[in-house]
Amino acid sequence: MAVYTEVADEELSAFIDTYDIGKLLSYKGIAEGVENSNFLIHTETGHYILTLYEKRVDPNDLPFFLNLMQHLAERKLSCPLPVAARSGALLGTLAGRPAAIVTFLDGMWVRRPRPEHCEELGRGMAALHLAGADFNMVRRNALDVDGWRPLFNQSGERSNSVVPGLAEEITRELDFLEQNWPKDLPTGVIHADLFPDNVFFLSNKLSGLIDFYFACTDAFAYDVAICLNAWCFEPDGSLNVTKARAMMNGYRQVRPLSQAEIDALPVLARGSALRFLLTRLYDWLSVPEGALVTPKDPVEYLKKLRFHQKVETASSYGLSL
Amino acid sequence: MAVYTEVADEELSAFIDTYDIGKLLSYKGIAEGVENSNFLIHTETGHYILTLYEKRVDPNDLPFFLNLMQHLAERKLSCPLPVAARSGALLGTLAGRPAAIVTFLDGMWVRRPRPEHCEELGRGMAALHLAGADFNMVRRNALDVDGWRPLFNQSGERSNSVVPGLAEEITRELDFLEQNWPKDLPTGVIHADLFPDNVFFLSNKLSGLIDFYFACTDAFAYDVAICLNAWCFEPDGSLNVTKARAMMNGYRQVRPLSQAEIDALPVLARGSALRFLLTRLYDWLSVPEGALVTPKDPVEYLKKLRFHQKVETASSYGLSL
Description:
- Chains A, B: It comes from Roseibium suaedae.
- Chains A, B: Its EC number is 2.7.1.39.
- 2 copies of one chain form a homodimer.
- The first copy, chain A, has 9 helices and 9 strands.
- Chain A is an alpha+beta fold.
- The first copy, chain A, has 2 domains: 9-103, Phosphorylase Kinase, domain 1, CATH 3.30.200; 115-317, Aminoglycoside phosphotransferase (APH), C-terminal lobe (Aminoglycoside 3'-phosphotransferase, Chain: A, domain 2), CATH 3.90.1200.10.
- In chain A, strands 1-2-3-5-4 form a 5-stranded antiparallel β-sheet, with helices on one face. In chain A, strands 6-9 form a two-stranded antiparallel sheet. Chain A has a two-stranded antiparallel ribbon with strand order 7-8.
- In chain A, β4 and β5 form a beta hairpin.
- In chain A, α4 runs antiparallel to α5 and α6 (220-231) packs across α8.
- The mean pLDDT of chain A is 93.
- Chains A and B meet through α1 and β1 of A and α1 and β1 of B.
């Protein structure tokens, strides 16, 4: 649930008038998105999403995100298309915040993904990787293997208040990952946050990808590993191999995985599990008393990490090697 | 901000399929409304609002509210029109809650109403009073003069923690109002909560009235008194007579006020100020530590009450007597 910034009708109407999208007819704050304030707006030409970027987004990264969405949409990937103001700018200022308007995308995210959704996701993710191949901007992944230890240090020994012994367990895992993190895998634009709530479906067909505000330049197979964690585990913490196999099959129909990528998957899955464990741990320990948002449970990702530590080869994910 | 109930996509799609409005294409929780959960939904036939009624609404009152909106919309008053399911029912059940779908209304509420908005509001309110004249259902105003003392008793002496001496001041006002409350004024359907956020405008013309969940059968002039308090005071607590006069003029263009109604206005305005003081006081004292919603300031309505206590005749509101 998130509308962090209130916007007055006159101020918003004036902002809309700097675009060629007709007069503003209505706007509603949307109770979605954790990082930014989002409004569904209706103008004389249609429906759009207006986003005000709040403090967790670095304004210097916004041109990368907006140009990427424009690049992908031009290549027929179904994602929000940033709308340019009359001046040509994709980014404006509203209520003291960076602000952008993107096209509205129909579709709904699935609360309980089934194997057919995972296969669709695999195909869509591979299509994203291909469509981004000739995008000429680069953004380092701020949450890659080099970023995890500094991030962990902000939680440190306090981690033990969440799970006894957690600080030592994470330190051991960091040691392992820093020594064994794969290099030289095929790299390009990845979404890096392709959780179910960022993937829209219509009649069980993928209809769009949204929320590119973690997108960066990194190994394609790391995106696959993130989705393995985000889509293919059951609520009880076990891997659903049918879903994993479906996702991998879907991906490989569109973009083949090299042997190096397949071999790297267990380590990438450990790294991805640790990355979300660390950010959730930080949020869990940083949340003020009586906060608006309940932080997500870090233990879910600790369980996934422990699962991947026992995996020897990608065959455990349903992949034929 | 309010989406109290999460709804799964499959459950919602199945619910939509009981209506003749096409397949569900998208839905977004709206960060508006304090009492209920609201979703903006898009189907193959257009945009609608889906409301799940939460615990503050008595389910027994819902037929009154929904039939009233239908009645008013049929008489060309611009308000949400409840959509009937294939079964003919205006009310269904979703996620364990009573649920209804109404048509989507364009327009925006004005954060800083000007006199021309107040005149439009006056006309719209009078049109509502006329359109409701032949509505054949009755709902007692649960927050009328008989309800205020029991409501106050739930705050009681704790009121003094908000403003020293407040409990005694309210008790004196209750004594006065119970003895001097006007009887036999013209009565019918009133909105009873026509605050700026429930009135939509497009290009400074009133485009619709929403949120009929306090509507009831009471004196028309009491609705006028509520709007006097809600629309015509400045942030510093002073009455803006230009706005009050504009609202009264707008109202009388559509429905004349009788001499008895005009004479009763100062007492009705005191009663209306007390009614909102009491509910805000109750919310203020009842809010749990670290709650999601910041309660509205009761002192705003104490100041308005004190203003009306000094008013002798309705001429203070800009009315020619």
